[in-house]
Amino acid sequence: MKKKRFYNNKKRNKKWTEQEKGRKISFADKYIETDNSSDKYGRTGKKEKKPFFTRIRLNIFAKYFIIALGCFAVISAGYIVMDLYIERNAMPITENSDDVSDDISAVSLQLKSKKIESMSMDGGVMLEAVLDELQKGGFTSVAFDIKRDDGTIGYNSSLATIDMYGAESSFASNAGESINEFIKNDILPVGIIYCYKDNIFAPGDLTAGIKMNGKLYRDNNASAYLNPDSDSVYNYIKSIIEEVKAMGVTVFVLEGCDLPDELGDGYRDGFKPLANRLYSDFGNEIKLIESISVSINSDNTKAIQEEWKEKTDGIDSRNIIFSVSAKNKNKVKKFLDNQDGISYIISE
């Protein structure tokens, strides 16, 4: 049996052809600074630093910069268009929006309103057509008759006095729901009250109508008038406002506050005393606006401007609203929209 051989390291590195090189490793070798400039292949020299802004990087940077600039331009254009839309279609401008809910009587309104027939406020098909027309036309509010100049009432009232005289005519069958729909669609509902000309209540109540020579006064058109000094007349107007206010209307236009000149100077400028009395009862919950009628017969922009200036010369447009009838309603509306501080109601 062949003996196993066991090897050791006694003659290691002595019989090899390669001679020993280097020196013994010392524990302090780790503190010796070495030249790290050479790589594992023995190549020496510092690596060449490449510039940060290379052509490729510049092209990428320019690409993203153009994209960012384009996004900024699109966003800016969007804000400009949005501001223009809000300015043209916003709700009436107020001097202090924080006080609107607290004191509507002190709010300065700029109304862009269209007058509609009361009977179109049905809460259904006719109302939808009205809303569509208002929004397409750029109106911020809608005006409708509460009490007309013949004394008829334009909404479905539950007041005993109105029911007694049968004053309802061509009335809104669903005024409350229709008013809520206007408000939901950012359209301000405005109620129009023709105050003193009245052919229903005036002859029906002996204490309500103005009398001359012991008889009920009538003008050349056989129209009778309510007496502004009568408490029953005031309470009649007040009760109408109170009922419609409960439906959501807070802005009221008072028309026909002045009486014929032959009745004397005591019945001129009737808006102020009536408004003051109503404000004393309703406080700051309602806004009352005086109406001035203007008819524009011109058909081109320059002539419209001249006719408007002529017919409104000397009228302070603050806190009043112009009830406008026009030959060309679209051109007149466009002209009025470009005027600062003018509120209007354009008739159908």
Measured by DSSP, the beta-strand proportion falls in 15-25%
Tally of alpha and pi helices? 9
Mean pLDDT: 83
Classify the helix fraction into a percent range: 25-40%
Q: Describe the sheet with the most strands.
A: 7 strands, parallel, barrel
**H/E series, N to C?**
HEHEEHEHEHEEHEHEHEHE
Distance between the termini: 131 Å
Structural class: alpha/beta
Q: What is the total tally of β strands? A: 11
Question: Secondary structure elements and their pairing?
Answer:
Blueprint: H1 55-89, E1 112-116, H2 125-137, E2 141-147, E3 153-155, H3 160-165, E4 168-172, H4 175-184, E5 188-194, H5 201-204, E6 211-212, E7 215-216, H6 231-245, E8 251-255, H7 271-282, E9 287-296, H8 301-311, E10 320-326, H9 329-337, E11 344-346
Parallel strand pairs: 1-2, 1-11, 2-5, 3-4, 5-8, 8-9, 9-10, 10-11
Antiparallel strand pairs: 6-7
Report what the structure shows.
- There is one protein chain.
- Helix content is 33%, strand content 16%.
- The relative contact order is 0.10.
- The chain has a 7-stranded parallel β-barrel, surrounded by 5 helices. Strands 3-4 form a two-stranded parallel sheet.
- β6 (211-212) and β7 form a beta hairpin.
- The protein has helices at 55-89, 125-137, 160-165, 175-184, 201-204, 231-245, 271-282, 301-311, 329-337; strands at 112-116, 141-147, 153-155, 168-172, 188-194, 211-212, 215-216, 251-255, 287-296, 320-326, 344-346.
- By secondary structure, the chain is an alpha/beta fold.
- The protein has 9 helices and 11 strands.
